[in-house]
Design brief:
The protein is built from 9 helices and 5 strands. By secondary structure, it is an alpha+beta fold. Mean pLDDT is 84; it is low at 139-144.
């Protein structure tokens, strides 16, 4: 098993290739991680998992160890393969997804790509009590955004040209404790923070 990979970044787009000892490894990574990669030729390190099937081998990599652990837990759920698990981690940090699973927040889980109502409920039911060993940083003092409003604001920000990762970072800075902010108000506040992300 290849659990960690450290080497020279050859390319990040359209595929991530890391050269280690003269061998180039193609690594499937979350889009959030891809956006954090610097120029080629810099050194990178990934926590990895080698996915083995009869017809193929795929090396998955994550900048954060928690992302790798959650990726593996998600694949333990019936109906969740590596594509869906990687897609989830491409849109939100592992800590946010873990919090949603522990809280059985199926409305949030349904905002993840490829997850419908039944799959979201299955994830919450099967994993809610099985993530206690995952170390997650304390939640910020601001209450999380209502799922529907947050998703609309996220779509608005990305349609304005902001990357998904940057938009997520901005939304984490907004104080949602009032619970009554409209989409328009939240977008305006997000744009005020945008220059500080």
């Amino acid at each position: 098993m290849i659990a960690r990979l450290r080497g020279r970044l050859v390319s990040a787009h359209p595929v991530c290739i890391v050269e280690v000892g003269g061998v180039g490894f193609e690594v499937s990574i979350p889009e959030r991680d891809r956006e954090t990669l610097g120029p080629a030729d810099g050194e990178v390190q990934f926590h990895t998992y080698l996915y083995v099937r009869e017809d193929r081998l795929v090396l998955f990599g994550f900048r954060d160890k928690l992302d790798r652990e959650l990726f593996l837990r998600l694949m333990d759920v019936s109906g969740i393969g590596p594509k869906l698990a990687l897609g989830a981690l491409s849109h939100y940090p592992a800590a946010r997804i873990v919090a949603a699973i522990k809280g059985k927040d199926t409305e949030f889980l349904r905002t993840l790509p490829g997850l419908g109502k039944k799959t979201s409920e299955r994830i919450a039911m099967e994993l809610a009590d099985k993530l206690e060993d995952l170390e997650v940083a304390p939640a910020p003092s601001a209450a999380p955004a209502p799922s529907e409003v947050r998703e609309e604001v996220l779509l608005a920000l990305t349609s304005l040209g902001m990357s998904r990762h940057a938009a997520d970072a901005v939304l984490e800075k907004i104080d949602w404790r009032g619970g009554s902010a409209s989409v328009e108000e939240a977008v305006r506040e997000a744009l005020r923070y945008a220059g500080k992300v």
